[in-house]
Amino acid sequence: MSAVLLIEDDDRIRLSLAMALEDEGYETHAVATAEEGLEMQRRQPADAVLVDLMLPGMDGFECIRQLRRTDDVPVIVVSARDDTHDIVAGLEAGADDYVIKPVAVKELAARLRAMRRRGRAATAAATPAMTVLTFGDLEIRPEAGEVRLHGDPVAVTRTEFRLLCELAEHPGQVLSRQQLLSRVWEYEIGDERLVDVHVGRLRHKIEDNTGRPRHLVTVRGLGYKLQP
Amino acid sequence: MRRAGLRTRVSAAFAIGALALSAGVTFVSYELISNTLFRERERAAVRATYFDATVVNAGLAGSDPEVGELLQALDIGADRYVLLYRQGQWYSRSADASAGSAVPDALQQMAATGQAGAQRIRRDSEAALVVAVPVQGEAVFYEIVSLGELERTLQLLALVLTAVAIMVAAGGAAVGWYVTRHALRPLAAVADAASGIAEGDLDTRLDPDAEPELARLTESFNHMADELSRRLQRDRRFAADVSHELRSPLQTLSAAVSVLNRRKDKLDERSAAAIGLIADEVARFQALVDDLIELARSDQPVHREPVDIGLLAGRALRDRGLPVDLVEVVPGTPVDWPIDRRRVEQALGNLLDNAVRYGGGPVAVRIGPEFLEVDDAGPGVPAESRPTIFDRFVRGPAANSRGGGDGTGLGLAIVAEHAAAHGGKVMLLDRPGGGARFRMELPQAESE
């Protein structure tokens, strides 16, 4: 059974979502503030985090940033506001996905499962022969879940890693945002901002000059590709 | 009849004023000049006649003067003609004795009484002056002075003056046109600003220092624009707040209903039925909130990007469990359309839902250059429903219940808003062979 940390200040939402998630087979750690959530994650690490953006005290954005310092746990933003600004800011803070309230519990469970698969894909398919995908000074080891730049390990989240692997497995080939959404996030139709923000985050980690990316380049009107 | 424009009217008034003024000045000056010149000419003619008469008088002093020679001896120019009436006979410088007929009878009678006189006549279609001076021996000396040259001069003067009057009138019209253009230029700025605001640029303001005379207009215009943008912002904030306030309780409802739904089997039949009703209504409530928020935001600009329209249509059908082969592509239709993917997908989805709910299901989704059409199998839309079909909260009679109960009544209104946001429109046509055809036009480029 996997555990989910739910950070939600509205008592009724927290209670009902916790019950519904438990019905779906998740052990739920439900807390009302970001501070409690961070503390809970330190003591009893969950496999995924659901976080509201509007929280008393520390807000959801800061909460995600603090989580990300030590943890690559998948984070899904659960927000009642659907303006672009909040969504992009949440993703830039380090969230892997977002859903807008009211979200059906089945849908939420599907998102959590997709993220779990993403995490496992990086480790479960370990074969004796370790593959190393090399793009100039960038090295990706899909089975080991490792990314190295100039030989030094780079800390990436599971979603960022899946995205990088997806691009690395098709060297020099342009993948559209919709293709990446369906392969990494398992969305049939989804918000392309997810891809854009994750690419931006990856560039901060693997590019020397994010303004003029060398490896992870944008192909205008088509999508992204990875090159040496 | 449409009223003439302000500029035309002002210019016409300027032209008429200038014409009246110049015509008055022309008329008065012509009269003055012509009177003065005629009087001058007449005075000169009379003086010359008296002088000639004195010569003739002296010549007649003899016992049997030779009248012909006497007249020949007079020093006269080409424009003067002399006659002498003596003892019932006319004498002139030539042999033409009938020349006397040019002298009016009234003047002859007056001269016969011994009075000198003058009268203006027309001779050979020219103005002329006849001066009569009685001389000795019951004779009268006449001199006919042609005024033709003077008349021609005055005609030329009249022509020149008329031309000047017309030019002045035209000048007046031009000044009127020019002046109104300058006077109306600030209004053109107001019109530009107003259409800018209508197109959604709410930051458009007029420069209050540009036209001091129009300060009041500028001020009230800017005030109106401020007020409008404040209201729009308030409405948008309200929509965002409402969305937040409604979505939070809906989240609780949705999660709690799913918990109950899971335990339906353990409940008695009535409770299970009640929970089924709540679950349906929560779903409908959620759809309603989503649609209302969509409508509240529909004035936001579209986010255009190249979209494979065939893929989009196929996905919309697949999502609804409809056969993908309903899609027909008109030959020559481009594959990628520069459109707002989310909004077009939603609009097409709403048309498909509409066809399922009220039209007996879609029978074709046609993709042509800059348009999408959805045909349904239903009975078509009755005439009385057509004018309001794209209005909010208007629902048709459900043809079947496959659509899962009533819609929100906002679906087609959202389609209309999305089409309008792309600079296009949606319309209801008749499908050949019965049924309704909804056609959504999506211009690929913003038409300015």
UniProtKB/TrEMBL annotation, chain A:
Q: Where in this protein does the record say 4-aspartylphosphate is found?
A: 52
Per its UniProt record, what PROSITE patterns does this chain match? OMPR_PHOB, RESPONSE_REGULATORY
Residue intervals of the OmpR/PhoB-type domain: 130-228
Domain of life per record: Bacteria
By its UniProt entry, which SMART domains does this protein fall under? REC, Trans_reg_C
Annotation: DNA-binding region: 130-228
In terms of Pfam families, this protein maps to: Response_reg, Trans_reg_C
Query: Which SUPFAM superfamilies does the record match to this protein?
Result: C-terminal effector domain of the bipartite response regulators (SSF46894), CheY-like (SSF52172)
Q: Which residues form the Response regulatory domain?
A: 3-116
Record-linked CDD domains: REC_OmpR (cd17574), trans_reg_C (cd00383)
By its UniProt entry, which InterPro entries does this protein fall under? CheY-like_superfamily (IPR011006), OmpR/PhoB-type_DNA-bd (IPR001867), Sig_transdc_resp-reg_C-effctor (IPR016032), Sig_transdc_resp-reg_receiver (IPR001789), WalR-like (IPR039420), WH-like_DNA-bd_sf (IPR036388)
**Keywords, A to Z?**
DNA-binding, Phosphoprotein, Transcription, Transcription regulation, Two-component regulatory system
- Recorded protein name is Response regulator transcription factor
Q: Which organism is it from?
A: Paractinoplanes bogorensis
Automatic annotation (TrEMBL), chain B:
Q: What is its EC number?
A: 2.7.13.3
Q: What is the enzyme's main class? A: transferase
The regions listed as transmembrane in this protein's record are 12-33, 156-179
Keyword vocabulary terms for this entry = Kinase, Membrane, Phosphoprotein, Transferase, Transmembrane, Transmembrane helix, Two-component regulatory system
Q: Which residues form a coiled coil?
A: none
Q: State the InterPro entries in the record.
A: HAMP_dom, HATPase_C_sf, HATPase_dom, His_kinase_dom, HisK_dim/P_dom, HisK_dim/P_sf, Sig_transdc_His_kin-like_C, TCS_sensor_his_kinase
- Keyword Phosphoprotein belongs to the record: yes
SUPFAM superfamilies (UniProt xref) = ATPase domain of HSP90 chaperone/DNA topoisomerase II/histidine kinase (SSF55874), HAMP domain-like (SSF158472), Homodimeric domain of signal transducing histidine kinase (SSF47384)
Domain HAMP, by residue range, is: 181-233
Report the residue ranges that make up the Histidine kinase domain in this protein: 241-446
Catalytic activities: ATP + protein L-histidine = ADP + protein N-phospho-L-histidine
User: Would the keyword Transferase turn up in this protein's UniProt record?
Assistant: yes
UniProt-listed PROSITE patterns: HAMP, HIS_KIN
Listed GO MF terms: kinase activity
Compartments where found? Cell membrane
PANTHER family associated with the record? SENSOR HISTIDINE KINASE TRCS (PTHR45436:SF5), SENSOR HISTIDINE KINASE YKOH (PTHR45436)
Q: What name does this protein carry?
A: histidine kinase
Organism, per UniProt?
Paractinoplanes bogorensis
